[in-house]
Amino acid sequence: MSATAAQLELPIQETPYDFGAIFGNTHPVELEVGIGKGRFLIQSAETRPGTNFVGIEWARAYHLMAMERAGKRALTNIRFLRDDALHTFKLALAPQSLSALHVYFPDPWPKTRQRKRRLIQPAFVDLAVKALKDDSLIHLATDHADYFAQMEAVMNGHKQIEVIERHAGSEAPEGVTNYEVKYRQEGRTIHKMVCRTKRM
């Protein structure tokens, strides 16, 4: 890994990150869980320099690949973390420290006995709402209809979340992930949802 890319890596920690110190500014911070090769996160950082971006990815190969790509572009408004998302949200994010959350194509764990391992569960959403500012957006996408139904149930059942948009289709807008490009080429239907946080 190049020295430039290495500077973009956040250490795993059990106390909240000070994003103001990390980025050297007070710009809004958006976080993506499961960045894959980093297509969406890097494109977003390039086109929106007034926003800071943090990407969490557990797969080491993808984590390193995304950092190298961002390092070659000399991006300063992006950071990468290789950690379990639940650990990060439980311990390393201060309340109301994020302005948006992106979760695109999380593992659907399709077998019935595996569903408890899905990321979008009430416990995770509780943590996400705590970390997000008021009126922040949560962007979700999956090609798995059953998982999308679960996402809808979880989001609709949360008192501090309002579902503001649902969409299913096959077009490929700019800024999508590598998974979305692949799945659309295969003719899969992509289900998307946008939610807004609200305080009680």
Question: Can you give a write-up of this model?
Answer:
The mean pLDDT is 91. Helix content is 34%, strand content 24%. The longest helix has 13 residues, at 60-72. The protein has a 7-stranded mixed β-sheet, with helices on both faces. It is of the alpha/beta class. The protein contains 8 helices and 7 strands; from the N terminus they run ααβαβαβαβαβαβαβ. It has helices at residues 3-6, 19-23, 39-47, 60-72, 85-91, 122-131, 145-156, 178-185, and strands at 29-33, 52-56, 78-81, 98-104, 132-142, 161-169, 190-197.
Strand order of the largest sheet: 3-2-1-4-5-7-6
Number of strands: 7
Beta strand %? 15-25%
CATH class membership of the largest domain = Alpha Beta
CATH topology label of the largest domain: Rossmann fold
Radius of gyration: 16 Å
- The domain count comes to 2
Q: Which tags fit this structure?
A:
single chain, 200 residues, alpha/beta, Rossmann fold, 2 domains, 34% helix, 24% strand, globular
Write the layout of secondary structure elements.
Blueprint: H1 3-6, H2 19-23, E1 29-33, H3 39-47, E2 52-56, H4 60-72, E3 78-81, H5 85-91, E4 98-104, H6 122-131, E5 132-142, H7 145-156, E6 161-169, H8 178-185, E7 190-197
Parallel strand pairs: 1-2, 1-4, 2-3, 4-5
Antiparallel strand pairs: 5-7, 6-7
Describe the structure concisely:
The protein is an alpha/beta fold and 200 residues long.
